[in-house]
Specification:
The complex is a heterodimer of chains A (about 280) and B (about 220). With about 280 residues, chain A is mainly alpha-helical. Helices cover about 50% and strands about 5% of the residues of chain A. Chain A is built from ten helices and four strands, in the order βααβαββααααααα. Chain A has helices at about 25-35, 80-85, 95-100, 125-135, 140-165, 170-200, 210-225, 235-245, 245-255, 265-275, and strands at about 15-20, 85-90, 110-115, 120. In chain A, strands 2-1-3-4 form a four-stranded mixed beta sheet. Chain B has helices at about 15-25, 40, 65-75, 80-105, 110-140, 150-165, 175-185, 190-195, 205-215; strands at about 5-10, 30-35, 55, 60. The longest helix of chain B is centred in the middle third of the chain and has 30 residues, at about 110-140. Chain B is globular. Classes of the chains: A mainly alpha (about 280), B alpha+beta (about 220). The interface of A and B includes residues 122, 123 and 128 of A. Chain B: This is Glutathione S-transferase.
Chain lengths: ~280, ~220
């Protein structure tokens, strides 16, 4: 279960046992990690990468469901990302049972990220740890709390997206309408106002934080379902474009990265098989 | 002297109860505002249109977990380093999952309630309580993290009491948790919160459910 990349130090051994974003921010975890790689000159990549189930290989070259093609193109300064973390994807109930029986999952649930000698479960806990460790949680307690508030709100919205593929097809259309309404009436106006009033490039403290990563992920995931969802939010449109140009985020959004494609029927089927068969 | 934190919520447990517990554990007195006047007093302050809302240190905080994290940090109940904080986050996320199941049940249909409560007790006995029993047994310390009282202990204590309201004997197979409950329950601030006259709220009844439904319109 623990894959150890040759050449990386033991502190960089990150094992991720993941299950499909039945919860939030998985791709956010990856994006977060990528934002920090430049600071981590060793490339020893304390880069846990919680991921949506979708790809069935540890190497991008063997992931038919990935958007990507070709070898990674990250500059050397960022370290060799592909060796800096490992992933284990759940495909069978037996795998999950093994993880549970061997005591790797505190509450018998995934995602689980093994890093720095800990087996972390609970999405928020993992996201907070990565953010704290890699300076994406503000400069003081007040900034941290603002980031926390924004993240919690955005996760509420993201969760509806994550649950959407598991609804009956007949309910999905209605759910999409409700989701769009929630985003447009409740959440996006808040962030539009924050950006408009501050005139800054990020939500909190004029620097990139967990709040920006989670919001970007949510916006992009919503746009996949509802392409016009940002049409009434010019500040969010600019914000999305600007964030997407940050080199580490840009790479994550490019083909060949660890970012997972939208959930498809195979993904839903596998989730049911692992949990319910 | 700093102003008391102001809590805006319904007159019942809901998502505010964990916050009340944490403030009580920290020995902080609060000023509570009930939900009827919600629109008047909270207009413009509810970030995503939702309560709980806590006014503290010049900020209007919403989002339960964000509020709890802030309070834990402010009152030194969040561990002494990043790893301890991560453990506390992990444990409180787990107990919150359990408590949210209990909080949601009064709002489900009457035919489902009994079954839901039985499932919750089962989950407590097979998933959550064994995990914490193991933690306490593993290090043999009085508290869950770093040998010091923290937010994780407050919330586990609260979760135990909530499940005991559904099944009084639920701790019968968990000696560590029984001892933990007795220890934590004896701490002065916790003891005070358990006594009549504190800010602690009773379990949801039909009236509470009706008020929440009316105000939130669902």
């Amino acid at each position: 279960m623990c894959f150890h990349s040759p050449g990386s130090s033991s502190s960089a051994r990150v094992t991720v046992a993941v299950f499909p974003g039945l919860f939030s921010g998985w791709d956010s975890g990856s994006a977060l990690a990528h934002c920090q790689l430049k600071k981590d000159s060793s490339g020893a990549g304390l880069c846990p990468v919680p991921l949506f189930l979708g790809s069935k290989s540890l190497s991008p070259a063997h992931t038919p469901s990935n958007r990507g093609h070709g070898p990674p193109t990250y500059p050397e300064a960022c370290g060799n990302i592909w060796n800096s973390f490992d992933e284990e994807f759940l495909e069978t109930q037996e795998q999950l049972k093994k993880l549970q029986e061997e005591g790797h999952l505190m509450f018998q649930q995934v995602p689980m990220v093994e890093m720095d000698g800990m087996k972390l479960v609970q999405t928020r806990c993992i996201l907070h740890y990565i953010a704290d460790k890699h300076h994406l949680f503000g400069k003081n307690l007040k900034e941290r709390t603002m980031i926390d508030m924004y993240v919690e709100g955005t996760l509420d919205l993201l969760e509806t997206l994550i649950m959407h593929p598991f609804l009956k097809p007949a309910d999905q259309k209605k759910d999409l309408v409700a989701m769009a309404h929630k985003a447009i009436a409740l959440y996006f106006p808040v962030f539009e106002k924050v950006l408009r009033c501050s005139g800054e490039n990020f939500l909190v403290g004029n620097q990139l934080s967990l709040a920006d990563v989670i919001l970007l992920q949510t916006i992009l995931a919503m746009e996949e379902r509802i392409p016009t969802v940002l049409s009434a939010f010019p500040y969010l449109q600019d914000y999305t474009s600007r964030l997407s140009e940050i080199p580490t985020i840009k790479r994550f959004l490019e083909p060949g990265s660890k970012k997972k494609p939208p959930p498809d029927e195979q993904y839903v089927k596998t989730v049911y098989e692992v949990f319910l068969s | 002297m700093a102003a008391k934190p102001k809590l805006y919520y319904f007159c019942g447990r809901g998502r505010m109860e964990a916050i009340r517990w944490l403030l009580a554990a920290a020995g902080v007195e609060v000023d509570s505002r009930w939900g009827r006047g919600r629109r008047r007093t909270t207009a413009g302050h509810l970030l995503f249109g939702q309560v709980p809302l806590v006014e503290i240190d010049g900020m209007m905080l919403t989002q339960t977990r964000a509020i709890l994290s802030y309070l834990a940090a402010k009152y030194n109940l969040y561990g002494k380093d990043l790893k301890e904080r991560a453990r506390i986050d992990m444990y409180t996320d787990g107990t919150m999952d359990l408590m949210l199941m209990i909080l949601a049940t009064p709002f489900s249909s009457p035919t489902n309630k009994e079954g839901s409560y039985a499932t919750i007790v089962q989950k407590a006995k097979t998933r959550y309580f064994p995990a914490f029993e193991k933690v306490l047994k593993g290090h043999g310390e009085d508290f869950l993290v770093g040998n010091a009282f923290s937010w994780a202990d407050v919330q586990l204590f609260e979760a135990i009491l909530m499940v005991e309201e559904l099944d009084a004997a639920v701790l019968s197979d968990f000696p560590q948790l029984k001892a933990f409950k007795a220890r934590v329950g004896n701490m002065p601030n916790m003891k005070k919160f358990l006594q009549p006259g504190s800010q602690r709220k009773p379990p949801a009844d039909d009236h509470y459910v009706k008020v929440v439904r009316d105000v939130l319109q669902f």
